[in-house]
Give the backbone structure.
Amino acid sequence: MTDTYRTEQEAFWAGAFGNGYIDRNRDAALLASRTVMFTRILSRAGTVGSVVEFGANIGLNMLALRTLLPEAKLSAIEINPEAVKILKMQERLNVHHGSILEPQVETPHDLSFTSGVLIHISPDALPSVYDNLYAASGRYIALSEYYNPSPVAIPYRGHDDRLFKRDFAGDLLDRFPDLKLVDYGFCYHRDPNFPADDMTWFLLEKRGEG
């Protein structure tokens, strides 16, 4: 951990390991799988005219969403400076360079979401991310993360305290009583056409909206 970041995990992903993650995720097949996943998520949502992603890396999800929502206003928050450079190459993408533990967007978007990000956040710091994710949403929140009914830490590529599974959606539903569950689904690594990394996705909506 450095003085720049509140947690060891932030420094980890902002540095050399995060740079290596960029190289491992330049994959057309992964982009196709993300597009299919968001097709399923958005099929249960109403009109979505603006989206913000927490922890966008190089923007594969943004590319998928641009295909599905060509007129939407897209925003991305990313901590790794090398990934930010790549994000800024995308047209019509508002990029915020910073930590998702801190407020990064002033105007709520129709949809705020994370994908494979909450699993890498220190459990002690999750409440800050939850609050920022909720504040950034005008209507919907989506999560695509590893699910486990109870919190558990798992070694990640030789590192301890870098991968955590839990019921992230359940945490949000308990923390914000005005949220309701709209839908959920599973992405299986042995899907014959669009394999993914065994992620479980959830779509939540603020009650009274729409």
About this structure: The mean pLDDT is 90. The beta strands are 50-54, 73-78, 93-97, 109-115, 137-145, 152-153, 164-165, 179-187, 199-206. The CA atoms of residues 148 and 175 lie 18 Å apart. The chain is about 30% helix and 25% strand.
